[in-house]
Please model this.
Amino acid sequence: MQIINPNYSALNAAQTAAIALNTAHVAGNGSDHADVATNTSGVASNVTAIGLNTTHRGSDGSDHSLSHVQNSDTYLDEGETNEVTAADAADAVTKKHAIGGDTTLGTMTANLAMGGFEITGAGPIAGGLNVIAIGENTALSVEECLSSLCLVSGAYTVTLRAVSEVAEGANVTVFSTGTNTIKVDLHDDDRFVLDGTALTVAHMLDSAGAAGDYVTVVKDSAAGWTVIGRSGTWIDGDTS
Model:
């Protein structure tokens, strides 16, 4: 018995003769459940080229053959898929770092206080000082008040952020690169502690005007900043 596959017309007599159908597996309704056997003449590759539509049919005539689809290196049975579902996508959204109502993946818009560290979400996280060149009167940003060295090249005023905006331990060093009087100002509700004495609220610090003068201040509490180091003479500069 020979089968001529309508989808493959280039079979010669030797190739078709190599296909033997075992008729012992025919179902009651006449559908063919036969296995395909090949002879030893080396025509297995020809057999695989023939789509045998009558192989492995069920009693209802439906095709029970399995086809395999490779998806991400995983073989799946016919009809199966390996897709990212809507639930998977929703789960990914809930795991993103959205802070303060911002829903942008990976964006942090508020500060995370973790022990003595603060992650601001803007700029690099590094262990060194943020070095800032000051060439005019300058109001520092929140990030610039966290740990910065301000190199001031003229008779300018450097203004700190309100202590309510930065974490305790935030620190700024203001350094004069020339013979200029430098002023360090602060928020109207804050105060400096100089030489162990709390100055009047809103009073700034003034340098003596020598090159190399510097002052380092640290946020000590909700009240303000404390001078923890200096070079040269720094005085209560009042509010002028």
Q: What stands out?
A: Residues 20-26, 34-54, 65-74, 105-117 have pLDDT under 50 and may be disordered.
